[in-house]
Specification:
Helices cover 38% and strands 27% of the residues. The protein contains 8 helices and 8 strands.
Length: 186
Amino acid sequence: MPFYLKESDIVPQVAGLQSVLIVPCGFCPAASLAVRKKKPYIELFRKFWRTEAYETFIQALKRRLEEKGIKTAVFDIKLPHHYVACMWTYGRRRELAKRAAEFEGVVVLGCEATVEIVRDAIKSTDCRVIEGMEAEGIMNVVPKMSFPFNITLEVQGITSVIKKESKKYHERINKPSKIALTVGHV
């Protein structure tokens, strides 16, 4: 089930920056915008795996930033395994770090897990990480298919998510475990 995300006002956060890299996840934000705009999530023969409502949003964000004099680029989704950012490979994360080093800031379009993955991937750079979206809950959706292989998402409900933050929690999840290291190097 995808997170139900809404756009954040990033204008105050990008103030003073001259360049930003937009880093989109292709799953939750795309599903959220398709649902909000009442548009298809997938139009296979028209847009392949890209969601038109999300692509339009990304281009509008890019235009708004450029109108403010900020150089922008998009860390594009090219292959299927790039689609869900919270499951990026180490190679994709290294590629992001290399690309992000060319920018002062990174605008992340995705859930909090994606933000943390990006933050971790680019920690060797001086980039400011900016959350471009925030979670309102988790969507319970039913995919509906129509001709010619268009998929829309019918929302059955949204479950709110309570964000628990504590120092102990972050220490526990950020401490490498033997299992994580073993899995990470396989």
